[in-house]
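Field reference: sequence -> structure
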Amino acid sequence: MRVLWTLPYLPWPTTSGGKTRQYHLLRSLAQRGHQITLLVQSKTPPCEAARAALEPLLERLIVLPRRPLHSPLNLLAAVYAGYPMRASVNGLAPHLRHCFEQLLEERWDVIQIEHSYSFQPFEKALQERGLPFMVSEHTIESVAGAACHDRLPLWLRPFNAFDRWRYRRWENRVLSQAHEVVAVSPTDAEHITHLTGYPATLVINGVDCAHYRNIQPAMHSQRLLFVGNFEYGASLEAIEWALEDILPQVWQSNPAVRFAVVGHALPDSWKSRWTDPRIEWVGYLPDLRELQRHSAIFFAPLRYGGGSKIKVLEAMAAGLPVVTTTNGMSGLQAIQGEHYLSSDDSDQLALLINQLLNQPWRMRQLSEAARQFVTEHHDWSIAAAQLESVHARLSQRTPALASLEGNGLLSRSAE
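Structure field:
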């Protein structure tokens, strides 16, 4: 099939779960023989490494610049536009709209839009032509905004509530137009179905199980590992909670424990804020395997965020026992106590870590069960097959149907 795939960011390097998902799905679909044109709006131009990683997978890579975040247009749109703020930041882009319209002159089997917040430049052209398309939604933004509401300064909370209201309207508007909607977790699929009245299809987040198969964690190393993207508030909050409330309790019982913090956009200020030498400020690593081999536990104290957590899946595939929270395992059908340990209480999390470090047999038990779980349920090949099924349904829609919809003679509800 010929696929027109749009993204509001470059999927390489894989510095976030979303980018990791996009790269592996692109690679998997390309390996299955599909011809993909990737249309990207990016705040940074593609480097040579990005082109080397992406271009062999694609028929075409088209990258257009996104205006700066602090552009006056974004500030005005945040207050006055009917779009939610994130849709304004990633939309209102005439150059992107024109490029998309030109691409629609070609014949496509599948038009795939990633994220409802990137949809604004494409809406008019799709409506006018009545072309079937799909939207892949990674996070329900109106719900995610509610989760962090209480952490915002008081003066910002009214605007956050207003923007969530705008986002609920926008999500309903976008997802109700799409002929196929993809969610990354069962919870998100249920929410989307409730929001629009139409079923959403689950395309799981995954992991390259073969990539991590030969890793044997160092169960006696006393090292905890956290991996996140620090452009996102959920990862920032997790580290603050860990270092202010949880690790001090761990160290009272076991002073030898170390904590390795890995991820993109690690704040420089943290090194002076938390100076304990047992904290290892690693930053972004393109390959986690060597550090995973020298770690004992993957610790993910995530209290906010949506979707499902790819870094948790990668840790499980590497055989690292996982200690996390309810939210840290959101979107996954793993079983607490069998595949991982969790609590939402800081005292209990510290206790779980100290107990587990003293139980190598329990660590091996969790390691083996987690590896089996991700191999059976979350390999990227499974996700690619699910996405390919969505593409197949979308490609079977007839030109006659598209023509009728474009002329306003057939609504989605009439189908």
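Note: DSSP finds 18 helices and 13 strands in the chain.
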